[in-house]
Amino acid sequence: MTGISETLKDLHDGERDLEQDLLAAADRHRADHGFHHVAVDVARWSHEHTRRLAEAGRDHGLDLSGPAAHPASGALASLRDRAAEALGRRTEPGGPTLLRDLRGLHLAAARNSLYWEMLAQAAQAARDEQLLELTSSCHPQTLRQMRWTNTMLKELSPQLLLAAR
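RE: above sequence
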């Protein structure tokens, strides 16, 4: 597997995970309409990125249509929530959970951003116009996902962390 193929696969898995994590967080915090609706909207970007990466993967001999190579953290979070509920330790949505979700979402988007940047640099060096177009159209949306989570963390951290005292 070439470096580009490996990066496409890792980024595909990362975008799929981010989509699932965004949707799981949106579901956990559905009472917070502002968070819920934006999380669902930006999850659509990751869904579209996943689809476009699968198309690009075909040009590099990859089949990215199957399940993720590793368990998705969104699925793990859902299992963890169900297990906690069954054991009587239900994690209530709210301040600490919202901050934990935002932190995880931000780190996942940052990881994807790094992969997009690596892919863009490789596409430029290889003069691969299709891959360069893909990175040029998708990476800015990932950067916007990062800015959104960062803004939410900045806005919510003071009140939620001080309320926990």
